[in-house]
Write a structure and sequence with these properties.
single chain, 4-stranded antiparallel sheet, 3-stranded antiparallel sheet, dUTPase-like_sf, magnesium ion binding, Deoxyuridine 5'-triphosphate nucleotidohydrolase, magnesium
Length: about 140
């Protein structure tokens, strides 16, 4: 699938790191480093603007290495970029560790996965079909 993109960053376009990767790594596009203190959050610009086809979304997700090694995550994970959004792609990073983390220009801060989605039409009813799970919620299926 082709996606129209404007790259106003100092970096190349996001790339898949392996042949079977689902996510493209997004790079920070910064004029100066950002120090992210414990429990702080920041919008990290990427310099990318895109036009997704209708019926698709971009999901912004944490990078597992940054999460494991440094406690960084995407706060609204996964963040959603709708097909009609034309603004700059930004990453809402949060530092969940006890140590400050410095985000540097060009650093791969998140990954972006393109996914197909559907829109629904509500059908109001008086009853829902029964299921094996029924109304069992959090923890109802075991550990």
């Amino acid at each position: 699938m082709k996606v129209k993109v404007i790259n106003k960053s100092k970096h190349g376009l996001p790339q898949y790191q392996t042949a079977a990767a689902a996510g493209l790594d997004l790079n920070a596009n910064l004029d100066q480093d950002i120090e992210l203190k414990p429990l702080e959050r920041v919008l990290v610009p990427t310099g990318l603007f895109m036009e997704l086809p209708v019926g698709f979304e971009a999901q912004i997700r944490p990078r597992s290495g940054l999460a494991f090694k440094h406690g960084l995550s995407v706060l609204n994970s996964p963040g959603t970029i709708d097909a009609d959004y034309r603004g700059e792609v930004k990453v809402l990073l949060v530092n969940l560790s006890n140590e400050p983390f410095v985000v540097k220009d060009g650093e791969r801060v998140a990954q972006m996965v393109i996914a197909r989605h559907e829109q629904i039409q509500w059908e109001e009813v008086a009853l829902l079909e029964d299921s094996e799970r029924a109304a069992g919620g959090f923890g109802s299926t075991g550990k």
